[in-house]
Amino acid sequence: MDKPRYDILDGLRGIAALMVLLYHVFNDAKSFFVWPTPVNEFFHGFLAVDFFFILSGFVMGYAYDQRLKEDMTLGNFIKRRFVRLHPMVVMGVLIGLVAFIIQGCEKWDGTEVSVQALMLVTLLGLFMIPSPNSLEVRGNTEIFPLNGPHWSLFFEYVGSIFYGLFLHKLSTKWLRVWVACAIVSIAGFALMSEDGGIAYGWSSEPTSFLGGALRMLYGYPMGLLMARVYRERQPKPIKGHIFLLCSIALIVLLGLPFLGGKDAESIYQLICILSFFPTIIWYGARGTVTGVRQKVVSFIGRLSYPLYATHFPLIYLYIAWVGRDGHPYEGYMQPWIPAVIAIVASELIAIICLLFYDEPLRKWLTKKWFTSK
User: Which residues pair with 112 in a beta bridge?
Assistant: First the structure.
């Protein structure tokens, strides 16, 4: 029996990727904007990573659970994940390298970076290997300094290997136990973390690396458990504007401003990842979309990964530009103009990568490595 195509879930992945872009534009670079009032719009966009982890667990569980138990080897599974993930990993690193060269090959403090260090960091990034602090060419402990958001792609790889080696073999009973333990672990981490919440994973600092691992070790198993329960219950499809409703819910949850306190932030973030996100995915899986809307939703979903994998070097460039020259647009350029430019340019780069690189290359690799069945 053919596996169902979850177009709405793909589209929701695209909405989440857009929220990540807005989060980075309005928060990571916000201190360099000359806004008339303080801004923290889209403050919770970083939680899209947890949405991605849960969604990946759900989709992979539905697509591969039975096949790994029956006819698919671990090697073929890993190759399929490589084909899906790695072309845009390579492109994201190369775009990050070009941006870093344009930026002047300097750390944020102005220290010049040697050619040897830059080449080694590039090589590590191409092979999805985190950079140690000694090779952090930006000077702020990023494990993927040429393209910071790749930290979550690293954990995506780890999650895929973890799923292929171990997680899919767990019975549903023991998977529930795992998820329960993961919930306790990530809740304890969020409530006791220094800054409050789970906005960790991008840095080589031990606490950050642990936080990223916990986010993955909860998200993937949670998504897999949902897929198994969904397969067992086979809930009836829901008609109506499910994509629109789920998108609005996701935008509101990820776009909510900073709540103003460590405890409030920790609780809100936990509620999102433990309750709201699984609910959105569950109902998104039950929804249907047809006709022109299906094509639009499908394209939004196809664009999600290229957008996520390539947008951040533009943020680096903008921060470097403003950091070097002060506020060069002050007095003659409205502060929203560079933000709009960054958003539009990121979308255009993602579309070009999708249509002329990612999809053609994945199609070629699939044809070369796998026989159709």
Answer: 106
Rounded CA separation 13/10 (Å)? 5
d(CA 361, CA 30): 36
- At residue 118's C-alpha, the angle toward residues 115 and 123, to 5°, is 125
The distance from CA 243 to its chain's CA centroid, rounded to whole angstroms, is 20
The residue-averaged pLDDT of 101-119 equals 91
Run of H or E residues at 86 = helix 74-103
Tokens 């494990």 belong to residue: 143
Amino acid, single-letter form, for residue 73: T
Q: How many CA atoms are closer than 13 Å to the CA of 26, on its beta-carbon side?
A: 25
Q: Region 285-298: what's the mean pLDDT? A: 92
Q: Which helix (H) or strand (E) holds 161?
A: helix 150-165
CA distance 348 to 227: 34
pLDDT at 340: 84
- Give the integer Cα–Cα distance in Å for 175 and 164: 14
Per-residue burial over 95-134, b if 16 or more Cβ lie within 10 Å, else e, is bbbebbeebeebeeeeeebeeebbeebbebbbebebbeee
Nearest to 34 by CA among 307, 349, 353, 329: 329
Cα end-to-end span (Å), the chain: 12
Backbone angles phi, psi at 137, to 5 degrees: -75, -5
pLDDT of residue 371: 65
DSSP 329: T
| 3-state DSSP assignment of residue 30 | helix
Residue 64 pLDDT: 93
**Which residue is it, tokens 């899209």?**
48
pTM over 0.85: yes
